[in-house]
Amino acid sequence: MTALKGLRVLQVLPSLAANGLARDAVEVALCLAQNGAVPLVVSSGGPLQRELDRAGIAHLTIPALASRSPWSVLANDRHLTKIVHAHVIEVVHAHSRLLAWAGWRAAGRCGATLVTTCHALYPTGSWVERWRGAAIARGVRVIAVSEHVRDHLLTNFPVTKDAVSVVRPGLDLALFTPDQVKSTRLIHLARVWNLPDDRPIILVPGRLQPGQGQMELIEALGRLGRRDLCCLMVEDCSGDTAPANPGYRRLLEQRIEGLGLGGSVRFLDTWPDPTAAYMLATMVVSPARNPEGFPRTILEAMAMGRPTVLTDHGSAREVAVPGVSWLVPPANPEAMAEAVAAVLALNTAERINLAERAIDHVRQRFSRERAAAEIIAVYREVVKRD
Fold first, then answer.
1. Where are the beta strands (DSSP E) in the chain?
2. What's the DSSP call for residue 243?
């Protein structure tokens, strides 16, 4: 990648929290530095900044980047313009719809090229929502994290097909591998979560919101009529993240009691060791009613060799593998119950074969090195470097 030498790239994102978006941005910055480019990251800060610091990659902290207020958008515009000018930035890469507005104005004022990434399916029900999302389409190149997101962009925003590149996120396969999870970690997490030793574990990561389909999964468990299951609904509320919808959780709890599942379904608000959690799971379920931009947790589960049950829509179809993933119609408790029962019925040999296929699928297609290389190829194209 000698054409990258000296290329000055500014990535702009809301924070460096330990989430998929931030991990992708950090990996791109590391790859740029390794190939002679000059990466710069601007965010409101977060724990992943340590990785940039260790690699000697510059990071600038602007607290307002995490805000969604209109006044912050204007302030970010001024901040980014100064940064782009001072650091002679050639490519501005915005990782959110509101930051894309500020990035677009800063790039235009300073003669830089704007690249954006669309990580989610933005709502378009009102003119305010359409305005918020429209800046994503202003990139010279728009990166979509799935084909489903690409189709959403083409349908709802003023962007041409040639301007959109699909780059699916990747995983750190040195982290998401069963070999790295020692038995001591499994024992520790099982104790922290007070897990039973002799019951199948159904792991359901995700925010507690009606669109995530937890109610339909509870109905499915009620249909199964089994009381030997342990279903863990994990909503990561560590740090500054608050529960998404306490009222919805109360409705779920009421339905659990009504179905006699009080000893079978639990809610957890910490996610201290995700890879160990996947290894403890008999299966991982994503019952979302609404399509996601990209089902990262399902991909992580597959990388750990776990069977997955997910709803048959959107980008879920892009990662599912027959015999490894069970696709069910959204908002269909009966079909969900059948899929969960099918996974529970797998014997040891079938589980071993499934794990091998799942791990191989992820390693062949979803490494973070592959994702970073594809994004950097976009940079090369937009600045006309061979």
1. 8-12, 38-43, 58-61, 91-94, 113-118, 141-144, 164-166, 201-205, 230-234, 265-268, 283-286, 308-311, 325-328
2. P
C-alpha 101/C-alpha 190 separation (Å) is 45
State whether residue 230 is helix, strand or coil.
strand
The values of phi and psi at residue 41, to 5°, are -120, 135
Could you tell me how many residues make up the chain? 386
Nearest CA to 328 among 220, 187, 224, 240?
220
Mean pLDDT of 90-105: 93
Token pair in block for residue 356:
């091998």
3-state helix, strand, coil in the chain (%, to 5): 50, 15, 35
Per DSSP, what are the bridge partners of residue 305?
Answer: none
Lookup: tokens for 244 = 């998404």
| Angstrom distance (rounded) from CA 297 to CA 271 | 12
Tell me how far apart the alpha carbons of residues 296 and 102 are, in angstroms, rounded to a whole number.
27
CA–CA distances in Å: residue 338 to residues 116, 225, 312 = 41, 12, 14
End-to-end CA distance of the chain: 9
Give the C-alpha separation, 104 to 195, whole Å.
49
Residue that the structure tokens 């750990």 belong to:
304
Mean pLDDT of all residues in 305-315? 95
Q: Is 154 exposed, middle or buried (0-12, 13-18, 19+ CB in 10 A)?
A: middle
pLDDT in tens, 212-246: 999 999 999 999 988 899 999 998 755 545 566 88
Q: What is the DSSP string of 278-342?
A: HHH-SEEEE--SSPPS--HHHHHHHHTT--EEEESSTTHHHH--BTTEEEE-TT-HHHHHHHHHH
Provide the residue type at 383 as one letter. Answer: V
Q: Is the distance from CB of 113 to CB of 91 less than 8 angstroms? A: yes
β partners of residue 201: 230
| Burial environment of residue 246 by CB neighbours within 10 A (0 to 12, 13 to 18, 19 or more) | exposed
Mean local confidence (pLDDT), 343-352: 97
Query: Within a 10 A sphere around the Cβ of 158, how many other Cβ atoms?
Result: 10
> In angstroms, how far is CA 245 from the centroid of its own chain?
20
Question: In the structure encoding, which two tokens stand for residue 382, read together?
Answer: 């937009």
